[in-house]
Design a protein that fits this description.
Among the domains are: 7-158, Winged helix-like DNA-binding domain superfamily/Winged helix DNA-binding domain (Arc Repressor Mutant, subunit A), CATH 1.10.10; 169-239, Alpha Horseshoe (Serine Threonine Protein Phosphatase 5, Tetratricopeptide repeat); 274-424, P-loop containing nucleotide triphosphate hydrolases (Rossmann fold, 3-Layer(aba) Sandwich), CATH 3.40.50.300; 430-509; 800-871; 873-971, Tetratricopeptide repeat domain (Serine Threonine Protein Phosphatase 5, Tetratricopeptide repeat, Alpha Horseshoe), CATH 1.25.40.10. The chain contains 44 helices and 15 strands.
Length: 971
């Protein structure tokens, strides 16, 4: 593998002339002893243009490979493992495995001083295995990325090998090799650093510093970035390294007063943030009027890794440098491995830069701080501390004088820096991000592919470092269109791999913050990816860690502090969001969580959503009514927390719709069919109240197949009932009837009278909609008895409400009023506000039919206040429809038309087509009352067409009667 593909067996070397067979053998070898699916083999061989016969051709290629391996003396090496194949490899037979084993051995030996020579030998043997560029003769998009990773692995091992040689004092021996390697990889920072180290320790300090300048020119010219932390730190150490002191018998020279200029170069392609730079400039200008007795001006710049804190700080520092004539100090306070640099080490560098000889620097930290502050007293010096870990690292580095400026960049907000002016940098908005791309790639290249440029911005999540890495890759390949990189980055599993180039690596940048977390924080960040929506509430941390919510919230806050988690404020309170690139990083870490623990965390999360959905339904309906439940466990939350979350159950629904749909899908994916249907049914009642029919449909389409696959009969009945109720709400009466009848039968067979009663109640409504009033009343009577036996008071009240409307249609107004009064008593006792409003509307309609227009008007006004308070749009449409009828009876035609038009808009928004037809019919009556016969006929005819479409026979008959009445009018 580590060169051209070559297979040697007892009978000689295997020569494969077929490109497809080489690709397949390479992919099987890379996954040695592991199954590779046929689909993946097809993707590798044909990329995205696989023919319809691809799977058959794969079988043919496998047969040829088996024959070829047998000819070479390697029979039975390819085994069939559905849904694919596996290549059997013994230990020591694959050069890639031998290479990895030797590298692992070498790195382990490198950790101990007495075995470093053994480490060198192991790495030397490993590198000797390479016969050239990995997979050099394989032309396959999928394997090209693998070859790049193998080449990167070889270079990494080479760097470790040279580093060990340097540690063993073999500086002169590696200089020539480093010259060749640097010439081949001029943008590789680690090789440049090793070259500088070798030259410096070989006594060639000038050449070492020249190497840094050459590296900087290459980086700026080719990819528009400055040298990384390791190179800049090494340059500073070479510049400030101690030299031999003067003979002890000579008088000591006075300490020189130096003006340090340690700022790295300004950023050529600085984009945006100009207003924020001005903010710091104004702060310094305002502080300039002080008498110098105040504390130093401190600016704490925070933001997630890669957001551009260093670039912002450097641009600001260079703009303000002239105002600090006594010098500018700069230090990266993390080393190249992301570990915090001790304050003592930074103070030593700063003191040498301020003219203090190395031999005069105190050993004790307190004495170093005192000397440092003494040197800065009365001077105007700028101090820039980049990438601080915490306040403890920074406090010893603060000057004591008020004439200094300290700028600190950090991934945390450094809330403990008293008196600091805080600036938080966020990712770029799309416009600013595209502008940065234009500066990095050139205006012409970006405007030539605006759609792809915007997609690249979105793939990078507006993170400046990610955009710079992507631009660096494109600048290194000027023949690539932007779209080619975009297509590669679409695969989220490999996007972080694609956002790495020339030492800049998004994964490594995120990992610095990740490693700063404690074990609980790392675990929570990984498990937060189980929340598969863009945003999520704070309580999820509890079940994910299996802790109480308050304790888990502290861990959640640590992720916010580390800039790994964003806070989002909505109408429903505080929510959280993972930046997409951080989500991808965290998902990689989740893969290391044992499968059983990961699954248990997801089940606890689902149990939390079940508990909240139950509670939301109870609060909206006044109890556990009009609903059945499964046997899935619930994870209870504290009463105070639930009160906060569900202060407004319908607002909670609006906030969590996407999360709930996602969780239902996750339950189905892991085979938890019981939780799947239970949660889906709980949500259906809330979706109905908001007319979220698309969401409702999505839950049925996920949960019904899940219970059918599992043979869960009660779940099947529940989902058929839910689907039938949905179809009923959308006035698809025939399909609704079939589903509800099937649900009723299954519930009855299972001995579930409550479920059967709920299905029967809706079957009665279908009879009512078809005008079969006697049949409807019979079913309602049977259903109400079963509902009362089950303790479903809201269900019983709802049946009385529907029976009241039948009485109303028949002119039995007293009976309708009695049913309404009993139902209202029940609704008020359980505090079901939606049902109270519906019954208030029914009572107002009874008044209307009695021609008690004033009472009807007052009752509709009361109902209107109720539905608007609960933001029940469909309920509001019904009330406005009734109000319009009152205005029609009063002869206020203009007012009636205005109210009815408003009702039409709400009914259409709520997808209540039957109500749209009824309102349209009423508008026709308004025009008839104004003797506008043509408009009256037009609206009435439209209502008839809609009733025909809905098979609403009762209302169609009423519309035909109105049409005949209009035709009979004189003129």
């Amino acid at each position: 593998m580590l060169g051209t593909l070559e297979v040697t067996g007892p009978r000689g070397t295997l020569h494969l002339t077929s490109t497809r067979e080489r690709v397949m053998l390479a992919l099987l070898a890379l996954n040695a002893n592991r199954q590779v699916s046929v689909d993946r083999l097809v993707d590798a061989v044909w990329d995205e243009d696989a023919p319809s016969t691809a799977r058959g051709q794969i079988q043919i290629c496998v047969s040829r490979l088996r024959r070829a391996l047998k000819t070479a003396g390697l029979p039975d090496r390819i085994t069939t493992r559905p849904p694919g194949y596996a290549l059997r490899i013994e230990d020591g037979e694959l050069d890639l495995q031998v290479f990895e084993s030797l590298v692992t051995e070498g790195l382990a030996a490198a950790k101990h001083e007495d075995t470093k020579a053994d480490a060198v030998r192991a790495l030397e043997q490993a590198l000797a295995i390479f016969a050239g560029e990995p997979l050099a003769d394989i032309d396959c998009r999928l394997l090209r990325s693998v070859a790049m990773r193998l080449e990167e692995r070889r270079l990494g091992a080479t760097e470790e090998y040279i580093d060990l040689q340097l540690q063993l004092g073999r500086h002169h021996e590696v200089i020539d090799d480093l010259m060749s390697l640097v010439a081949e990889h001029p943008l590789r920072g680690r090789l440049r650093a090793l070259q500088m180290t070798a030259l410096h320790h070989a006594g060639r300090q000038a050449d070492a510093l020249a190497t840094f300048q050459e590296a900087r020119r290459e980086l700026i010219d080719k990819i528009g970035v400055e040298p990384g932390a390791e190179l800049r730190q090494l340059q500073m150490e070479i510049l400030t390294s101690d030299t031999d002191g003067a003979p002890e018998d000579l008088p000591a020279a006075p300490d020189p007063v130096l003006v340090p200029r340690l700022l790295p170069p300004d950023i050529a392609d600085f984009t945006n943030r100009t207003e924020t730079v001005a903010e710091v400039r104004d702060l310094v200008r305002a502080a300039g009027s002080d008498d110098g007795s105040a504390t130093p001006v401190i600016v704490a710049i925070s933001g997630k890794g890669g957001v551009g804190k260093t670039r912002f700080a450097l641009r600001t520092a260079h703009e303000l440098a002239a105002q600090f004539p006594d010098g500018q100090l700069y230090a990266e306070v993390r080393d190249s491995d992301g570990r915090p640099v001790s304050p003592e080490r930074v103070l030593g560098r700063f003191l040498r830069a301020l003219g203090v000889p190395g031999s005069a620097i105190p050993d004790e930290i307190d004495e170093c701080v005192a000397l440092y502050r003494d040197r800065l007293a009365g001077r105007r010096v700028m101090v820039l501390l980049d990438d601080a870990t915490d306040e403890a690292q920074i406090l010893p580095l603060l000057p004591g004088s008020g004439r200094c400026l300290v700028m600190v960049t950090s991934r945390t907000r450094l809330g403990g820096l008293s008196g600091a002016h805080r600036i938080h940098l966020d990712v770029f908005q799309p416009g600013s991000a595209v502008a940065l791309l234009e500066r990095l790639l050139g205006h012409e290249r970006v405007v030539a592919e605006p759609t792809y440029a915007l997609e690249l911005v979105n793939q990078c999540g507006g993170l400046p470092l990610a955009l710079r890495v992507a631009a660096a890759r494109l600048n290194a390949r000027p023949h690539w269109p932007i779209g080619r990189l975009v297509e590669r980055l679409r695969d989220e599993k490999h996007r972080l791999d694609g956002l790495a180039y020339a030492g800049s690596d998004i994964r490594s940048s995120i990992n610095v913050s990740f490693e700063d977390l404690d074990d609980d924080g790392r675990l929570l960040l990984a498990r937060l990816t189980l929340c598969e929506t863009a945003e999520f509430p704070d309580w999820v941390a509890g079940p994910l860690l299996d802790w109480d919510v308050d304790t888990a919230a502290d861990v959640l806050d640590s992720l916010v502090d580390a800039q790994l988690l964003d806070v989002v404020r909505t109408a429903g309170g505080t929510r959280y969001r993972l930046h997409e690139l951080i989500r991808m990083f965290a998902r990689e870490r989740l893969a290391t969580d044992p499968t059983a623990e990961r699954l248990a965390a997801l089940r606890r999360l689902i149990a939390g959503w079940l508990f909240l959905s139950d509670e939301a339904h109870r609060r909206a309906y006044g109890g556990n009514y009009t609903l059945i439940h499964g046997g899935s466990p619930r994870r209870e939350l504290s009463a105070g927390l639930v009160d906060r979350i569900l202060a407004d159950p319908m607002q909670w629904l609006d906030d969590e719709r996407t999360s709930l749909l996602t969780v239902i899908g996750q339950a189905a994916d892991i085979g938890d069919h019981e939780s799947c249907w239970d949660l889906a049914l709980s949500m259906s009642t809330l979706f109905e109240a908001r007319s979220y029919f698309r969401d409702w449909r999505d839950t049925v389409e996920v949960a019904l197949p899940a219970v059918l696959r599992a043979g869960n009969r009660r779940g099947e009945a529940a989902m058929l009932y839910s689907d039938g109720t949905l179809q009923m709400n959308q006035h698809r009466l025939d399909s609704a009837g079939a589903r509800l009848a099937a649900a009723h039968q299954i519930f009855a067979d299972l001995g579930d009278p409550h479920g059967a009663a709920l299905a029967l109640r809706n079957l009665a409504w279908l009879d009512q909609a078809h005008g079969r009033m006697d049949a409807a009343l019979d079913k309602y009577g049977e259903a109400i008895t079963a509902l009362e036996s089950a303790g479903d008071r809201a269900g019983a009240a709802h049946v009385l409400y529907q029976m009241g409307y039948i009485n109303l249609e028949r002119g039995e107004l007293d009976t309708a009023g009695r049913h309404c009064a009993v139902a209202r008593e029940i609704a008020r006792s359980i505090e079901n506000q939606r049902l109270i409003a519906q019954l208030q509307t029914l009572q107002a309609t009874v008044h209307l039919e009695r021609d008690e227009l004033e009472q009807a008007d007052r009752s509709f006004s009361q109902a209107l206040r109720m539905v608007r308070a609960s933001r029940d749009r469909v309920g509001e449409a019904h009330v406005l429809y009734g109000t319009g009828l009152v205005r029609l009876r009063q002869g206020c035609f203009a007012d009636a038309r205005a109210v009815l038009n408003e009702a039409t808009g709400l009914a259409e928004h709520g997808a209540d087509q039957l109500l749209v037809g009824r309102v349209t019919l009423a508008i026709g009556a308004v025009h008839a009352g104004q003797e506008e016969a043509d408009l009256a006929v037009s609206y009435t005819s439209r209502a008839i067409a809609l009733f025909d479409q809905l098979d609403a026979r009762h209302w169609r008959a009423r519309a035909l009667h109105q049409l005949n009445s209009i035709a009979a009018q004189p003129g």
